[in-house]
Amino acid sequence: MNHERVLAIAIKRGIVAPDAVLTDDEINNLIFAPGFSTATTVSDLSGRGVGMDVVKQAILGLGGRVTISSVQGEGTTFCLSLPLTLAVLDGMLIVAAGSTMVVPVSSVVETMMVNHKDIYMLPDGANVVSIRGVCMPLIPLASELGLGGYGTSRGLSEDDVILVVENESGARAALIVEDIRDQAQVVIKSIEKNYRQMPGVSAATILGDGSVSLILDVPALVANALGRIDTRPSDVRTGIAA
Fold first, then answer.
1. CA 64, 68, 72 angle in degrees (round to 5)?
2. E-strand spans in the chain?
3. CB burial readout 165-185, b (16+ within 10 A) else e
4. How far apart are CA 96 and CA 143, in angstroms?
5. What angle do CA 177, 228, 1 make, to 5 degrees?
6. Which CATH superfamily includes the segment(s) 3-81?
7. CATH number for the 88-237 domain, one of 1.10.10.10, 2.40.50.180, 3.40.630.10, 2.60.40.1180?
8. For the whole model, what pTM was predicted?
């Protein structure tokens, strides 16, 4: 794939900001954006920017991943990973705003306690956390899902927990949750067929006690967080963009 052309078209269509600084993996994944197409004319088979978006959503809906590796002039490899049992998901049960939710274990990189010294506020108001010298967006899960809660580092509790999660391209973000309860296999239930689509939520499940729990859409949460922060290089000590 021609990364320069893909990025230029994404900027032209308003998919990414004109000053966005993206890695090759992030540029590759732009082809999955709704409405993205490099075709100059629309035909019966291509040009509407729908096909790749539908493919990705179908794979994510099954609890899988799709990744791309591409070298211009040599070729492109698409890697599709699907769970052996499509209806069952290995999940981590977490608590946000008093509600138990499920984070796919495959998306969790590590967990840790909150350390206020590692949290910084950027000029645009977004919060990032520095973990071993690497900055990533800080997402208060309850606030992100519209359940109230805190929006800045001042509202965090020392008892809160950070879940470092990543999407299919390896981009990472830090989820702030109140507690981690357990790890369990859950049966995936479609939420769109029974209710409606919810931002940041991919499906639902019924726990052992009969309660309904939401299964989080980690790629969507990471993408939303990355889309809100200033992508220009910044000084970690001050949080000021260069």
1. 170
2. 65-71, 75-81, 88-96, 99-104, 108-113, 119-121, 127-131, 134-140, 161-166, 172-177, 179-187, 201-206, 212-216, 234-235, 240-241
3. bbbbbebbbbbbbbeeeeebe
4. 9
5. 110
6. Histidine kinase-like ATPase, C-terminal domain (3.30.565.10)
7. 2.40.50.180
8. 0.59
- In the numeric block, which tokens belong to residue 181? 């309860």
Which DSSP string corresponds to 18-66? Answer: TT----HHHHHGGGGSTT----SS--SSSSSS-HHHHHHHHHHHTT-EE
Per residue of the chain (242 residues), what is the pLDDT tens digit?
888 888 888 888 888 888 888 888 888 888 888 878 777 666 666 656 677 888 888 888 777 788 888 888 888 898 887 765 557 889 999 998 888 999 999 899 999 887 888 888 887 777 888 888 888 888 889 888 888 755 444 456 677 889 999 887 788 899 999 999 999 989 888 877 767 778 888 888 989 888 999 999 988 888 888 776 654 444 444 444 43
Residue 118 contacts residue 131 (beta carbons within 8 Å): yes
